[in-house]
Sequence to fold (708 residues):
Amino acid sequence: MSESKSNASAVVSYSAHATVASIAMHSAPVNALSKALRVGLIDSINKALADEDVKVIVLSSELPLFSAGADISEFSGGDLSPMLPEVLDVIEQSTKPVIAVVNGNAFGGGLELALACHYRISHAANKVGLPEVHLGILPGAGGTQRLPRLADAKTALDMIVSGAPTKVTKLPKVFDVIVDTPQELEQAAKAFADNIVNENLPAKRVCDIDLSFDDKTKALFSEYAKGVALKTKGYFAPGHCVKAVESAYTLDFKSGLQREAELFMECMKTPQARAQQHFFFAERAASHVSGISNDLKARDVNKVAVIGAGTMGGGIAMNFANVGIPVVILELKQEALDKGLALIRRNYENSAKKGKLSSDQVEQRMALLTGTTSYDDLSDVDLVIEAVFEKMSVKKEVFGALDKVCKSGAILASNTSTLDLDEIASSVSRPQDVIGLHFFSPANVMKLLEIVRGKQTADDVIKTAMKLAKTIRKVGVLVGVCFGFVGNRMIEPYGREANRLMLEGASPEQVDRVIGQFGLPMGPFTMGDMAGLDIGFFVRESRRDFISHDPSYCIVADKLVAQGRNGLKAGKGAYLYEAGSRKPIPDPEVLEIAKQEAARLGIVQREISDQEILERCIYPLINEGADILKEGIAAKSSDIDVIYVYGYGFPVFRGGPMKYADEIGLDVIRDRLNHYKNELGEYGQHWFEPSSLLEELANEGKSFSSLT
Fold:
C-alpha cells in the first residue's frame, strides 16, 4: 500500500493513500495557471503514474475556487514551457483515471483543465465558463475541441462566444457527478474514486469522442455564424470562436487542436485583442490609488442618506438598498418624496416581472428605504450624497444644512457632474469630509462611479469611497477637480465638433452613423436628445465666458432649445420622435436652421467625408484627455479609458480613447489636429491646438500608456 505526502511544488500539493493519489492546487488568490503551477501539475501526475499502488488520481483545489484560468500576465512572453496544452495532454493521456473535483468556479484554462480530466465532479450552485472572448481571444488549450465533445454544439457555442458563466446543472453531460452542496464533494470524490478502482473503470478520454457533422449541425453553425456577425460588429474573436468550435466537427482531434491554435494566434495579433486585454488590466488598475497607505482604515458606512428623490437620487439610493445598506431619502416636499419612492418601487417591480428579482426581494429592498422631509433625520448617517439641481448656489445651501446636522466623521458627497467640488467644500466647516461621487444615469444601472478628490479631501474618505464603489458593484475611478472632471470635460469638444460639423454641412444622421460605425452605442445627436438638449444648454449658460469668442458654438442646439425642442421628452430635438417611440426621425427643419445660421455666420456649407467627421469628433476628445493627464486630473491614461468605456459606451474593442490613440499613433493624432487647425481658419486656430503633452509624446515616439 502506498502512503506518502509531499509538496510537488510551492503551489501544488501531492499525497497518496492506498490506491488514490491526491493533487491539490493552492496558488493564491485564484489558482492562475502560471508556469509554477503547470510544472507542479505535470510533476504530480508523473509521480502518480510512477507509483504502482496508485490506481486513480484526484485533482482538486484547496482554494474556494478551482481555477480562474491562465495567468494573463504571462501573455507578454518569456519562458512559458510547459504550455498549458502540454499539461492537459499529459493529464488526458494518463493511463490512470484522473477525476477533477471542481469545488468552485473554473474559468478559461481552469475549465479546460477540468475538461482534460477523465471524470468531473461538482456541486449544484457552481458555475464554470470560457470567458476568453472578453480578452479578444478564444480558448487556446483545447476548450473549443473538448467542450463540444462533452456537451453539444449549441451549448459549446453559447458558452464560448458569449464568455458567460454557466451553472454546472446545465451541463449534465460534462459533469459525471453533481452533488447538492460543496460540503458533499469530498465524500462524493472518495466514493467515485473507490468505484473506479473497484469496477476497474477506464480513463475516459474526451479526445476519443468522435463528432458527426450532419446536415442539422451544419445548418446550426451557418445560422450561428450569421447571428454572431450581426451582434458583434467591431469584435474579431467571436467569429473565430465559431470557426474553432466548428473545427471540432470537421477535423480529427489533433488537427482540431492545431486549428484552434492557429485561430488563437490570429486573434492575439489583432488590435481588438490588444485593446480588450488593455482594458482588462485598466479596470483593475483603476482601483489602486497611489499615495494612500494600505494600512489606512476606511470609515464604516452602515447607513446612507440621499438628498433628492428624483431619477438620479432614486437610482443612487437603489445601489445601496441592493446590497443591504439602509438609505434615508430626503425631499423638502412630501409630494416629491412620495413620487420618488413610488418610482423606485416601480423600477424594482419591473425587475421582478423580468424574473430578475423575487417579490420578497422587492419588499426587502423597499424596506431599506425610508423617506423624510427633515434634515434632522440625517443625524446618524455615515454618508450623505446630494443629488439636487446642478447649480452651485443650490449645492452650497444643501451642504450648509448638512454641516449643521450630520455627525462628526460623516462623509459629505456631491453627485455634481461639472461643478467645482472645492467651492462646494468651502461651504462647510469640515472640507476634509467632502468628496465627489459622480454617478452616471441611470445610476442603478451604469457601472461607472467618478470619485472626485478635492484639495482637502482626507485620504480615509478617498479609501472609503473606493471601497464603497466595489460594495455597490461599481467601477470607481479617482479623478481631480476641474470643470466636468474627466468624462464630461472630454465630452465637451466631442459635442462641440458634432454641432460645428452640422453648421458646415453634415446632417445629424450622418454624424451619428459615423460614430455608430466606430462603435459607440449612439451618436452625439441621439445622445443629446436622450439626455435632453436643455441640460446641455444650461451647462453652456454657465460657461458663456469660456465660449464667448466663438459665436458658432452649439448655436443650432441653442436655437432648438429656444423653440422648445428639448429632445425625446419633448417629442423633438435634433430629431423628431413619434409618441411612445425612441426611434429618431431626421427632420429637414433642423438642417434648414443650420443652413440659416451658417449663412449668418459666414460659414460655407460643403460635403463632409465620414473620415473627417470621425477625426473631428474623436481626436479633440483624445486631445482633451492629454490635457487632463498633463494637469494630473486623471492619474493614468488607463483611468480615462475605464471612464469612457463604462460611462460613455466607448467600444471595448478599441480599449478606450487613449488606448485607441496609442494604437493608431500619437503622431497621427497630432498631425491631423494640426491639419484642422490650419484648414478651419480662426475656428481651427482656437479649438485644434494639440496638447503640449500630446506633442511631447508624439515627438518622442511614445504612447500615453508609457506614462504609467
Observations:
- The two ends are 57 Å apart (CA to CA).
- The first strand starts at residue 2 and ends at 9.
